[in-house]
Amino acid sequence: MNLKKICLFLLLSLVLFSMVFAAGYRRPVKRSTALFQKGDMLVTPEIVFIEHTTSFGGNFELAITRNISVGGDVLLFLEGSGGMVISPDVAYHFDLKVENLDVFAGAGPAVSFGFSGGGSEFGFKPFGGARYYFTPKLAAYFKILAFIASESSFGGAFGVTFRL
Question: Which residue ranges in the chain fall short of pLDDT 70?
Answer without folding.
Answer: 1-34, 118
